[in-house]
Write a structure and sequence with these properties.
Layout: H1 13-20, H2 24-34, H3 40-57, H4 66-72, H5 78-89, H6 93-103
Amino acid sequence: MKDGRYRQPGLTVGELATIVGTTEHRLRRLINQGLGYRNFSSFLNEARIADAKTILADPEESRRQIVQVAFDLGYGSIASFNRAFRDATGMSPTVFRRRELSRA
């Protein structure tokens, strides 16, 4: 995950298992029991949202459209990105960006 694989659109647990050289079942068990995530999607979303927060708070990235951030992070639609971002932060990406940039 450190190499940014989580940004790959449509990444599945099976593909990630192949990349890291284990079975899908073992990887699911590691993600759920070992790391404490509810499921593979929540595992991916945490990494993606952490990146999104960094990008959206960066004044040098302020002209970058939020939809482009979403696609660059591997989301298939702006709706799924907005939903995941709101679930993680309690606010929309636009509100988050506005708040963070006003602090800079």
